Amino acid sequence: MNRDQMKGTAEKVKGKVNEALGRATGDRKQEVKGDVQQATGEARKKAGDVKDTVKNTTRKPG
């Protein structure tokens, strides 16, 4: 797992927490912030996945 994958996953978790807190308290702004964080985290994680795939496919065997 590379740095982008880890940071993306962490951002998604923070987003889930913010979304849940927003829903629990009725704070729509915090709920939306959580949704945005989750989307940002997912995008960063996917970028890390692509980097990992490229790294693994360009690696010379043996």
TrEMBL record:
It holds the Pfam family CsbD. Residues 1-62 are annotated as: Disordered. Residues 4-55 form the CsbD-like domain. Residues 1-17, 25-34, 42-54 have a biased composition (Basic and acidic residues). It comes from the Bacteria. InterPro entries: CsbD (IPR008462), YjbJ_sf (IPR036629). Belongs to the UPF0337 (CsbD) family. This is CsbD-like domain-containing protein. It comes from Pararobbsia alpina.
